[in-house]
């Protein structure tokens, strides 16, 4: 067995009921949710477990809810002696990776991401921007579609998720034009995403400016694990890099595909997605297939999946 990476999901992975089984099963998970409630001064636990969905999908609730759920599941894995060599997270998930690496205290992180969610939503009025996933179109052709649409306003690459999926983000009209142009250029599918803002585009720069002030007030520690940055697709070396990367991350492309390739090139052959959803596992499998690499992939969002991972590591030991 090679090296192990923990990867953490971002916004969009949430579902009502997430983390409830872990809360009921493990005292260490209960502590995480109770700490989140106390730190935020709201019942984020109930939002995770009971919804309603309208509350859960509010960006300023979604982000701390996913962070808390992911950390709770992480703590259960750590309690079983399962650890990683590398950590990374998609967008919001990078904060979870940094908590795992002890760069942030958990309570500081939930505050940061709650504010981050609010700043991101405030940066662009609802209905003025959006995002779309483009599937099955090579990067060079997608760039042509984006360049053509830029004549009508802001539209940019938001996420390089896998060789088969790239997400674009921007103002409504140019986004629509880029989607239609992508289809004409041969995209297998072009799907508008159910999000309320054009995340990871230059339109979100005001959110990064506000986040910078918050990050100045938070203690950032030396990292205890190797964390791969979204904006650079390489390890974060210093505390100042943590800060500057997170500010840039809000309005820059997420280099997820390159981040996974970096870890594969550095002997990672087991990836464990920790938190709600299972999109990251799918991306990783497609990236590995494109490189003809064999990897072990897990997505831990339920007790049954948790036990599968524990059994796998017991066999490897």
Automatic annotation (TrEMBL):
SUPFAM superfamilies: FabD/lysophospholipase-like (SSF52151), Probable ACP-binding domain of malonyl-CoA ACP transacylase (SSF55048)
One Gene Ontology cellular component annotation held by this UniProt entry: cytosol
Enzyme Commission identifier(s): 2.3.1.39
Catalytic site: 91, 200
Gene: fabD
Swiss-Prot/TrEMBL catalytic activity: holo-[ACP] + malonyl-CoA = malonyl-[ACP] + CoA
GO biological process: fatty acid biosynthetic process
Name the UniProt record assigns to this protein: Malonyl CoA-acyl carrier protein transacylase
UniProt source species: Anaerosalibacter massiliensis
Malonyl-CoA:ACP transacylase (MAT) domain sequence ranges: 7-303
Keyword DNA repair: no
Keyword Cell membrane included in the entry's annotation: no
């Amino acid at each position: 067995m090679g090296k192990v990476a923990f990867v953490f999901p971002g916004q969009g992975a949430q579902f009502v009921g997430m983390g409830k089984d872990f809360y009921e099963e493990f005292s260490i998970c209960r502590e995480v949710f109770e700490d989140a409630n106390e730190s935020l001064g709201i019942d984020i636990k109930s939002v995770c477990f009971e919804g309603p969905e309208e509350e859960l999908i509010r960006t300023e609730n979604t982000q701390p809810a996913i962070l808390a759920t992911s950390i709770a599941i992480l703590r259960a894995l750590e309690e079983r002696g399962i650890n990683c060599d590398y950590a990374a997270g998609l967008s919001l998930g990078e904060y979870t990776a940094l908590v795992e690496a002890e760069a942030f205290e958990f309570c500081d992180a939930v505050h940061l991401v709650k504010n981050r969610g609010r700043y991101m939503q405030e940066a662009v009025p609802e209905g003025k921007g959006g995002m779309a996933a483009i599937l099955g179109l090579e990067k060079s052709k997608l760039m042509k579609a984006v360049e053509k649409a830029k004549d009508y306003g802001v539209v940019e690459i938001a996420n390089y998720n896998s060789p088969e999926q790239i997400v674009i983000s921007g103002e409504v009209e140019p986004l629509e034009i880029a989607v239609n142009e992508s289809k004409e250029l041969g995209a297998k599918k072009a799907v508008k995403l159910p999000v309320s803002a054009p995340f990871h585009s230059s339109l979100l720069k005001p959110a990064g400016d506000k986040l910078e002030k918050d990050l100045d007030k938070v203690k950032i520690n030396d990292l205890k694990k190797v964390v791969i940055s979204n904006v650079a697709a390489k390890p974060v070396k210093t505390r100042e890099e943590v800060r500057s990367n997170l500010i840039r991350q809000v309005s820059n492309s997420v280099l997820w595909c390159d981040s996974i390739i970096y870890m594969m090139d550095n002997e990672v052959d087991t990836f464990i997605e920790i938190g709600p959803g299972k999109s990251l596992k799918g991306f990783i499998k497609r990236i590995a297939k494109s490189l003809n690499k064999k990897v072990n992939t897990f997505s831990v969002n339920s007790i049954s999946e948790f036990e599968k991972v524990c059994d796998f590591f017991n066999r490897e030991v």
